[in-house]
Design a protein that fits this description.
By secondary structure, this protein is an alpha+beta fold. It has one domain: Penicillin V Acylase, Chain A. The protein is 27% helix and 22% strand. The longest helix is centred in the C-terminal third of the chain and has 29 residues. 49% of the residues are buried.
Length: 378
């Protein structure tokens, strides 16, 4: 894809998207295939935002762009800002907002979702994404950690501000694991946010790293549904407490989705790249697999008229209302933990465990059928 087209399209969309809202916070990770149970790389985004209503849409290919599927805000009626996604080439991208990179007076900001849609349209590899960043006009209107993987098994974070970026290549990381929240390693020291959530993720992943058994479920069923607090040195998930203060856990009141993109082995068809998706407040959400191609996005994840809400997201948000059920005063800062986990095993998250385990079994069976179909055509 020609860089002149990159620049022209990006500038056009920036003008059209003056209203774009920032992603407030997120927790994320990129995992090398050598640490996963099946040898395929993983990319995880636990999204935190003020936009609770998410949906997944498939955007068809054109003469100059790739087909892709991505997470959009329901209010984004033109699908202009993608907040995580993957395309038909096996390229995938996500971001976390950073708050310690830029030191300028640029006011036309929050273009991360626009840039990610452009990348999904135009990039097939991590290297092509880096070339895109090199050629975009400055200032870019972003302050973010962009995570990317591709069908060749490459992965990287690009800590990107208005005028420059710093690349952290997964191949250069001895542990095989990269984690980012809402500060950048290359940014100003001790500024930004998400330091405790970053450590939460590192400590919860440590035993899985040691066993090289990381799966998408480790993220969606453990990290995104666990009230572990590294600063306090305890896991409050099954503490028996009735209430918790919503502070520095990975799942938060503003959490709106958890998504894991599972890549492919080198040489595998990139259409087998899978986006394991749980829309809505993650402790109350159901996992559904998504693929590119016709029929790859289940109807319950797509936006429906008149408000473009996804049924799956609405269902999770209805359950969330039972968890954050105090509306007066400072009530919104309190988690009714016993609604999620209790000694009777009847909590919302506890009851979803078996359903999501079956969803993974069904999803991997469907993936195996896709793989067998592709093999039969060779």
């Amino acid at each position: 894809m020609k860089t002149t087209k990159h620049i022209h399209l990006f500038a056009t969309v920036l003008i059209a998207l003056m209203w774009a809202a920032p992603a407030l916070a997120c927790t994320s990770a990129i995992v090398a295939g050598r640490l996963t149970a099946n040898g395929r790389p993983l990319m995880w985004k636990h999204r935190d935002t003020n936009d609770m209503n998410n949906r997944i849409e498939r955007i068809p290919a054109t003469a100059t762009t790739y087909e892709f599927v991505a997470l959009f805000d329901s209010r984004d009626t033109r699908d202009t800002a993608a907040w995580t996604g993957m395309n038909s080439q096996g390229f995938a991208i996500m971001n976390t907002a950073s708050y310690n990179l830029n030191s300028d007076n640029v006011t036309d900001m929050d273009k991360e979702g626009v840039l990610m849609r452009l990348a999904l349209e135009r990039c097939a590899t991590v290297d092509e994404f880096e070339q895109l960043l090199r050629t975009l006009p400055r200032p870019m209107g972003v302050e973010a950690n962009f995570g990317v993987i591709d069908a060749q098994g490459n992965g990287a974070y690009f800590e990107t501000g208005n005028y420059k970026y710093v690349k952290y290549d997964l191949a250069d990381e001895p542990s095989g694991l990269l984690v980012r929240t809402n500060y950048s390693y290359s940014g100003r020291t001790d500024e930004g946010s998400g330091y405790i959530r970053h450590q939460n993720a590192i400590e919860q992943l440590r035993p899985h790293v040691a066993c090289c058994d990381i799966t998408p479920a480790v993220f969606t069923e453990e990290l995104s549904r666990t009230f572990y607090h590294s600063m306090l040195g305890r896991d409050d998930t099954r503490s028996g407490a009735d209430w918790l203060i919503d502070q520095d856990y990975i799942p938060r009141r503003i959490s709106s989705a958890t998504i894991v993109i599972e890549g492919v082995l080198p040489g595998e068809d990139p259409s087998l790249t899978t986006m394991w998706t749980a829309l809505g407040y993650p402790p109350c959400a159901i996992v559904v697999p998504v693929w590119t191609g016709e029929g790859g996005v289940p109807q319950q994840l797509r936006g429906q008229a008149p408000d473009r809400h996804a049924a799956q997201c609405d269902s999770a948000l209805a359950l969330k209302a039972q968890v954050f059920d105090i509306e007066r005063g400072s009530g919104k800062h309190y988690i009714h933990l016993s609604r999620l986990y209790n000694s009777d095993g009847t909590g919302i998250t506890q009851q979803l465990r078996a359903r999501n385990a079956q969803a993974y079994r069904d999803g991997y069976n469907a993936l195996a059928r896709r793989r067998a179909t592709l093999q039969s055509k060779k």
